[in-house]
Amino acid sequence: MSESYRMTEPLRRLGGTDIFVSPIAMGCWPIAGVTSIDVNEKDSIETIEAAVECGINFFDTAHIYGYDGESERLLGRVLGPKRESVVIATKGGLHWENRMQAKDGSPARLRFECEESLRRLQTSYVDLLYLHAPDPKTPIRESAAELRRLREEGKTRAVGLSNATVPQMKEFSAECPLAAVQPPYNMLQRDIEGDLIPWCLANGTAVAGYWPLMKGLLAGAMGPNHQFDPRDGRKKYPIYQGEEWRRNIDFVERIRRVADAAGKTVAQVVLNWTIHRPGIVCALVGAKRAYQIRDNAGAMGWRLSDEHLAELDRAIEQRGPVDNRPAVRSES
Fold first, then answer.
1. Is there a domain that residue 69 lies in?
2. HEC string for 266-301
3. Which of 53, 78, 73, 49 minimizes the C-alpha distance to 61?
4. What's the rounded Cα separation, in Å, for the pair 288 and 30?
């Protein structure tokens, strides 16, 4: 493969652990095939293999990624022989009921999902086990205590929390050391800079941001006349509709001018900006084709110039923030 795709940026410490991860991680929701279209086993396997070849060592999946654990099963098949050289994160606390997402952060359910995930992944441990989302029916301290027990038993090296508020993070960490948190974060969704990132910096907790390309919007591949496949779940989001869509396309074109000047792709510029923000240890980027993950990996090993950062700052300020988060995280 081309050396241009190889990562030269140092690995980063995951919180206070001895786990070191690449600043670009592969998000494995797309290969689950639930909301992503045209997913197939061959391309998914090639994408995982390409990620490793490009220097990505961090893979993020979940018990709920696939109606029958498809994402974890694929990772297990491909990464099994490479287990000691990769970092695998999975999540528990969400499952499918009649193909609808259901929360259950009870100790018994978390233990069941962890053990099933380990079987699917063909490993005796994961490096990072998240509570996928706080369960309003289960006190978060109870969920945290069970994840702490799973860590003490060696089923995970570290524990994380996803889709949580700072008060929830505080309560969780009082019961179990919190190595990482996983919130949405990108150029246009930056509210975590106000409270979550400062708390994490003060408490030695890593931030692994998801949606850095904002469901593909900031990847630069869609033009103003883009037509979504009827099966594509993204078209339901406000960022792809009406005036918001027009403003977002204009914003991406400003990024494209910076990318052209830097000799990079739009996605690489967006991801490079993201992984060098204060407190951000890594960006979780979904992919279902090898060329996509290779492009994403090209965000590592270099830094945007001060001039280009200033232009991006102006574009971000003039665009203004958007709120595109559902009340409960939807992967689509």
1. yes
2. HHHHHHHHHHCCCCEEEEEEECCCHHHHHHHHCCCC
3. 73
4. 6
**Within a domain: 227:** no
In a domain, 233, yes or no: no
Question: DSSP characters for 127-174?
Answer: EEEEE-S--TTS-HHHHHHHHHHHHHTTSEEEEEEES--HHHHHHHHT
pLDDT in tens, 26-85: 999 999 989 888 899 999 999 999 999 999 999 999 999 999 999 999 999 999 999 999
State pTM to two decimals: 0.93
How many domains, the chain? 1
Tell me, what CATH number does 186's domain have? 3.20.20.100
Please choose, from the candidates 167, 222, 218, 175, the residue with its C-alpha nearest in 3D space to the C-alpha of residue 196: 167
Residue 13 maps to a domain: yes
Q: Which residues are catalytic?
A: 65
Q: Which amino acid is at 289?
A: R
Which range of residues forms the domain containing residue 139? 3-217+278-302
Q: Is 305 helix (H, G, I), strand (E, B) or coil?
A: coil
The stretches of the chain forming alpha helices (DSSP H) are 41-53, 70-79, 107-121, 140-152, 166-173, 196-203, 242-262, 266-275, 290-297, 306-319
Per-residue pLDDT tens over the stretch 225-238: 888 877 777 777 88
